[in-house]
Amino acid sequence: MPDWKAEVRKRLSGLQLAPARENAIVEEVAQHLDESYTELLASGMSEADAYHHAQAELYDGGLLMRGLQRVERSTNPEPIVLGTNRRTNMIADLWQDLRFGARMLLKQPGFTLIAVLTLALGIGANTAIFSIVNAVLLRPLAYQEPARLVIVQERGEGGGTGFSPSYPNFVDWRAQQTAFASIAAVRGNESFNFTGTGEPERLQGRLVSAEFLATLGIKPLVGRDFLAEEDRAGATPTVILSYGFWQRRFRNDPNIIGRQLTLNLQSYTVVGIMPAHFQYGADADVTAPFGLSAERFKNRGSDPGTDVVARMKPNVSQQQAEADLNLVAARLEEQYPATNKGRRVLLTPLHESVVGNVRQPLLILLGAVGLVLLIACANVANLLLVRASARQKEMAVRVALGASRATLVRQLLTESVLLAALGALLGILLAFWGTSLIAAQLPDGIPRLQEARVDAPVLLFTLTVSLLTGLLFGLFPALHASRPNLTEGLKEGERGSSGPRQRLRSVLVVGEVALTLTLLVGAGLLLQSFRRVLQVDTGFNARNLLAMRVSVRNSDGQQVANFFEQLQQNVRGLPGVKSVAVSDGLPFGRDVNHPTFLIEGRPVTEKKAFGQRYSVSPDYFQTMGIALIKGRLFTAEDNRDSPPVIVIDEVLARQYFLNEDPLGKRLKQSIGSDTPSLEIVGVVRHVEPYGLDRLEAGTGPAQFYTNFNQTPLPSLSRGAINLLTRTEAEPLNLASAVRGKIAALNKDQAVFNVRTMEQIVAQSVAARRFSMLLLTVFALVALALASLGIYGLMSYAVAQRSREIGVRMALGAQASDVLSMVIRQGMKLALVGVTLGLVASLALTRTMKNLLFGVSATDPATFFGIALLLTLVALLACWIPARRATKVDPLVALRCE
Amino acid sequence: MLDREMKKGSAELLILSLVETRARHGYEIGKLIEARSKGVLKFKVGSLYPLLYRLEKRGWIAGHWVEKPGEKRRRCYKLTKEGKRVLKAQRSMWQSFVVAINQITGLENA
């Protein structure tokens, strides 16, 4: 019987089938030939003929071979040809690299966890801060073609900062300008008392000229915009409601258009509803035409806080527009020399004016998180370098088997990008949480913050950052690891000298220390500033002081005075109340008047004297805790029938009565010639006017106090009065009792802004507190990472040198010698890092000069203190491995080699 | 002379039909085709086995080794569920093809 199996196998050899498959086919086909052969014999054919017959069927011009090749090809894996690295399939290679990388990472879960967490922290913090930067600084304003929008202000002839123009100037600009497609006036922080429908409510309002919405390119959601004829004195009052107010009070009822609302006891017709997400300046429930109040703003000389926003015509540059409007300003100067002398205009892009104040702190925070990410990268790179040492043998084996350097680098980079991707994934989760956390912590007054979210541009940023991160921390270790020393790497138990690798790790640690020091110095300077800010003497006692605003809607000054007189008496009777007072303005508030004044008997100078004027009840000083320096305070005897008196602060006394006694002198508010002259009866402490950190010490404006009971204020018929209650315990506990007293006197009386004076003070430093806290957190994270870096490096160095240390100790070195040797090695790196960091800090802290208060950007104490702190932490990080080195048993160390 | 595709298609149909009722090994299939077609159709090793393997790979037939006492083990093929579906479709297609050809060539009335 012929050996058909051998015959078939020979035929199939060219197919390179998997051995098992080949055996199965050989067996089956051989059996077929067997049977065929047997049958041919049985039919009487000779053995030779039968053999040739069967063999011919098998050969048959290679039919079997071709048929099998076609069928079996797709199951046949690519032949593995050793010793070549031809790139055959990029996707398959990448997939293989990824799977291999994932297996390697899973094999060392500890390393992977630490690396991923470190990266997630860095990438997450970057994503969170970037999402805020993106929302606040980068995203264009939500108006039509926002690049053409500018804010128009006035300035003095010589330049300088801008200030709000007066309404009459705006009206003339609007009539005479040619450079703008439209120009509009807007005044926020107006208030309206809403009565007649349900509970009375104090509404935030905004006055706008008729062109306002058109200038921004916004259309009302429902209804229409204001008409030009509605924007003048004496017109029928109309109003546009905010979406939120419409939703809250009218449940989105579209039939509200055309209805009448009672605002400030006047009937307004609703003409429109703002779009849901419309935002401009301070929030406003209602928007009313500016012109209705033109009478209030008729004074061309004073600046009542009218903002002007304008849309430049296409193809008109900001310079051209400014020059054009300056021509108008020059004409007005000729026409109204008394008020408009030297007045010119200043144009600022709207975007700049919205975000200008927060750009710097946000960019500094972004820079800070960038540094944190760099430090995280350095740490992970260090971990990878350690791992590369451990994998030296693996690399050597792969090179010996024919892997090229490029293959190894590609594999290692895939691993590090995989790490970065995992870090990014976790980091995005952190950022989702972190963005809302940071946004909630951020103080009021940061524009557009509510728009901050992790969206597509932010994710793109994260993707880019994590890819770069993966390449950054992976590249150097990969380049190093892929150049293994074959002879040493393949020897069992050989540790390898790995000199260059150790040097690279040292460089990384030095860099980490330097970056950390920079961050710490930045945070330290902010901390110092914050401490100084909190030490600022406000001039009043904020503790146990309740403040609330009570709206005034009554043109009869006497009735208003009587109401508040009665109210004070009633509140004073509440248990737990020490004293009660009213005032028209409060320190740190925006509602304080800054009128000019004259001192009787002095020549009128070119430069007018001006100061802050508070109209207060006699108990104000006692309630606020403002100390009397000289003379007397107001008393109950100072009333409408007695001669009008005034109390001034120490700044006014110093500025205008340097060498004389101010008591008995007379002061006159110059606005309106009929104002009475007031006798100075007392001098009190100066009060910080705008906030804890707004002014350098001693630069505040002069302040003076008029008696609420003596001088009826024009502003009393409008606006609101502060009711101040000094309490024995927690002031907010008394808030509802005080409100009850107000409601008992007048149930339609709107009360708002109920808060403690301590809250007002804290609010004024909230932004500072926020950037200080965030930078401190980043700096501490950096410190932790950097000390881990030093610790890791020294631990590894000690482990590597254990034999050398063993030999030294065997030769008589003392534990203290070893200790100092290791510490010296580590501290050398730390000190180089600290030195470099100090130099970098000197350069970088200059950028944050504007954020500092009472401390210079190169404050030696901060620089020295931080350097010392970092050195001590580094010392600790070296000391732990150094102590371990002293525990090396010479016998063990020598034997284990 | 049958054209290449038709030959291939009909060969598939033949094999599927033969293993429909019981499992058969390759030699048996080859012999049955030769015998039932009275020698008109004949499979050679080089075309039969690649075809079997292709059908097996498509999941239309399933092969498994069967051992009987005193004999060498053989690989037998059986129609799968999927194979049954394909056979049914191919059979009806083939029948309508034959009917159509017959109608045109007039063999029906001959």
Residue-averaged pLDDT of chain A: 83
This entry's quaternary arrangement is: heterodimer
Number of strands of chain B: 3
Give the overall form of chain A: elongated
Q: Roughly how many Å apart are the termini of chain B?
A: 21 Å
Count of DSSP-assigned helices of chain B: 4
H-E string of chain B: HEHHEEH
Structural class of chain B: alpha+beta
Main interface by residue count: A-B, 25 and 17 residues
Low-confidence stretches of chain B: none
β-sheet strand percentage of chain A: 15-25%
What does this structure look like?
The complex is a heterodimer of chains A (897) and B (110). With 897 residues, chain A is an alpha+beta fold. In chain A, the strands form 3 sheets. In chain A, strands 3-4-9-6-8-7 form a 6-stranded mixed beta barrel. The longest helix of chain A has 41 residues, at 350-390. The relative contact order of chain A is 0.09. Chain B has a 3-stranded antiparallel β-sheet. The mean pLDDT of chain B is 82. Chain B has helices at 4-18, 26-36, 45-58, 81-105, and strands at 24-25, 61-66, 74-79. Chain B is 59% helix and 13% strand. With 110 residues, chain B is α+β, with helices and mostly antiparallel strands. The interface between A and B is medium-sized, with 25 and 17 residues.
Map the helices and strands.
The complex is a heterodimer of chains A (897) and B (110).
Chain A: H1 4-12, H2 19-42, H3 47-59, H4 63-72, H5 90-107, H6 109-138, E1 149-156, E2 159-163, H7 167-176, E3 180-195, E4 201-208, H8 212-216, E5 222-223, E6 238-241, H9 243-250, E7 260-263, E8 266-273, E9 286-289, E10 307-312, H10 318-335, H11 337-340, E11 344-349, H12 350-390, H13 392-400, H14 405-441, H15 456-481, H16 486-490, H17 499-535, E12 545-551, H18 557-572, E13 577-583, E14 596-599, E15 609-616, H19 620-624, E16 628-631, E17 645-649, H20 650-656, E18 666-669, E19 677-684, E20 702-707, E21 720-727, H21 735-745, E22 751-756, H22 757-764, H23 766-800, H24 802-810, H25 815-844, H26 860-886, H27 890-895
Parallel strand pairs in A: 4-9, 6-8, 15-20, 17-19
Antiparallel strand pairs in A: 1-2, 1-10, 1-11, 3-4, 3-7, 3-10, 5-8, 6-9, 7-8, 12-21, 12-22, 13-21, 14-15, 14-18, 16-19, 17-20, 18-19
Helix pairs in contact in A: 1-2, 2-3, 5-14, 6-12, 6-14, 6-15, 7-10, 12-15, 12-17, 12-23, 14-15, 17-23, 17-25, 17-26, 18-21, 23-25, 23-26, 25-26
Chain B: H1 4-18, E1 24-25, H2 26-36, H3 45-58, E2 61-66, E3 74-79, H4 81-105
Antiparallel strand pairs in B: 1-3, 2-3
